[in-house]
Amino acid sequence: MRSDSSISHRVTDPVIRRYLGIAFLACLADLCTKEAAVRSLGEYGFVSLTDRFALMLVWNTGSAGGISIGPFTTELNVIITLLAMGLVLSVVRPMAAVDPRATLPLALVSGGAAGNLLSMLWGPPGVADFIGIRLTKDTTIVANVADFALWTGALLLAPVAMTLVRLVREERAQAALVSSAG
């Protein structure tokens, strides 16, 4: 008796395989670029690329955006990230069945989350952020490839969410018609 939730069945599912492949590549790209940045920039390296972009190494020891949530920041980050990744994995197939575009953004979000999670667990200094973007004279954000994967995935989910909202509205309208006719 084979269960749909068995691991071997899920990995052979083309949607799950595509999701895992993209997530793996996003995570690998993040980890490789972080390693390259740490090796080439050293502890205090700074390379100005343009007036708005630079390579600089900053160690993020907090949550997203460098926010600290107390003495258990790392532990909470690990738990929340693993729960979120499990939730995303559980909705990939159903969302892809409704909108095939869902697989890519969900994989990017998971791959970015995995990259930052592994970096947080590997290095005692924190997560290496190295892509500096000057927004204003006084404001610069420093991110990494995982962050860009997460942001891109979130942006690409917008049209998928709109499709889901439209389908729910259509289903509710259809149900209202059926109940009013009966």
Descriptive notes:
The structure is a single chain. By secondary structure, the protein is of the alpha+beta class. Helix content is 64%, strand content 13%. The chain has 5 helices and 4 strands; from the N terminus they run ααββααββα. It has helices at residues 7-12, 14-41, 73-98, 103-122, 145-181; strands at 46-48, 53-60, 127-134, 140-143. It has a 4-stranded antiparallel sheet with strand order 1-2-3-4. Strand 3 (127-134) and strand 4 form a beta hairpin. Helix 2 (14-41) packs across helix 4 and helix 4 (103-122) crosses helix 5 (145-181).
Write a concise keyword list for the protein shown above.
single chain, 182 residues, alpha+beta, 5 helices, cell membrane, 4-stranded antiparallel beta sheet, 4 strands
Count of distinct strands: 4
Count of the separate structural domains? 1
Mean pLDDT: 89
Task: Outline the low-pLDDT stretches.
Answer: none
